[in-house]
Amino acid sequence: MPITVVGSIAYDTVKTPFGERERMLGGAAVHFSLAASFFDDVRVVGPVGEDFGERQLDIMRARGVDVSDVERVAGGKTFFWHGEYGWDLNSRETLDTQLGVFEGFAPKLSEGSRASDVLFLANIQPDLQQQVRGQMTGARFVALDSMNLWIDIARDSLVAAIESVDCVILNDAELRQLTGKPNLVSAAREVLSWAPADAAGSGARGPRGPRVIVAKQGEYGAALVTHEGFFALPAYPLETVIDPTGAGDTFAGGLVGYIAAHPDEELSDALLRRAMAHATVLASFNVEEFGTERMQRLTGTEIAARIHELHAMTQFSGAPLQLRG
Ligand code: AMP
User: Fold this and answer.
1) Can you name the residues that pair with 21 across neighbouring β-strands?
2) Whose CA is nearest to atom 6 of ligand 1?
3) H or E stretch including 290?
4) Predicted pLDDT of residue 199
């Protein structure tokens, strides 16, 4: 089922202990699209400036991503982000963020984008996320990502946006900050409780509210909390990580893409666990090189092989031992 994603399309300048790149293609919607394109049709919505090249759009087109709703703003400047990582690749410093064309952005989805069955609200101002959500009331599955900045300066709006989606994907620290709960599971349960009382057991298009919480934990993996239960996966163990930028969005692209590709399957924990595995694997490829470099030449065969490995390394057999005590 087609997926629409709304979010940043950016130029990123990134420095890690392993090198640096200036003004490479980035942005949450871009990273998401490239990953989700392995599973289903993707339409990307967002503004770019006059400085954005056809070559950058071609990177998305090459993966079959529909970029016809990328809006080129005359005289505008593309969103720019500058970040730096130390030896601990789990923490980064944002050195500069220039909103550029995002400053006056009022999303207007085309009929084609509105018709998608699945929506991903990538990390943007939560009022914009709500505006987009309001234009896609028929979506079967809606997921949202956000960041500490919006928890700091627009919490009420973010909570309202969260109340209108099915799935919330956040870093574990953000989940704790959002809820004021120090424990990850209780923080996730708190967000699950924000669903309207009449949402439980509602049909696909009935009353909404978060029913799937995913906590990203960087190099430690990711956890899933639903009303049904709990699941967690480690990150795929890589020996070399070059640039973690976009790992979260790539993870989201794998998760949401996998769910989109199973339109006839109920949103059960079994389906979500498989989606988590695909998300984990996609993110692991993304961090192997700078920006979108690795994703541009990734193949389905490589993804399938790594899923197989992840499956093998996260299984253990039952151990029927008569325990003392
Ligand atoms: P991630 O590493 O998954 O958190 O995503 C990093 C991507 O998000 C980069 O490509 C940036 O261009 C983009 N990004 C960084 N800050 C923001 C922001 N405030 N709003 C939207 N996108 C952002």
Assistant:
1) 14
2) 246
3) none
4) 60
Distance CA 244, CA 91 (A): 10
Region 299-304 average pLDDT? 98
Give 184: exposed, middle or buried? Use CB within 10 Å, 0-12, 13-18, 19+.
buried
| Interval 28-39: pLDDT, tens | 999 999 999 999
Asked if residue 318 has pLDDT above 90, the reply is: no
Helix (H, G, I), strand (E, B) or coil at 124: coil
Q: Is 26 in the pocket of ligand 1 (CB under 6 A)?
A: yes
Helix axes 269-286, 247-260, angle to 10 degrees: 140
CA of 228 to the centre of ligand 1 (A): 31
Rounded to the nearest whole angstrom, what is the distance from the C-alpha of residue 187 to the centroid of ligand 1? 23
Task: Round the average pLDDT of the chain to a whole number and report it.
Answer: 94
The predicted model gives 173-186 an average pLDDT of 96
Return the higher-pLDDT residue of 88 and 249.
249
Torsion angles phi and psi, residue 260, rounded to 5: -60, -35
Q: Using the atom order of ligand 1, give the atom closest to the CA of residue 250.
A: 3
State phi, psi for 172 to the nearest 5 degrees.
-60, -40
Structure tokens at 54: 């056809």
Closest to 163 measured CA to CA, from 134, 184, 123: 134
- By percentage, how much of the chain surpasses pLDDT 70? 97
Interval between CA 266 and ligand 1 midpoint (Å)? 31
List the beta bridge partners of residue 142.
119
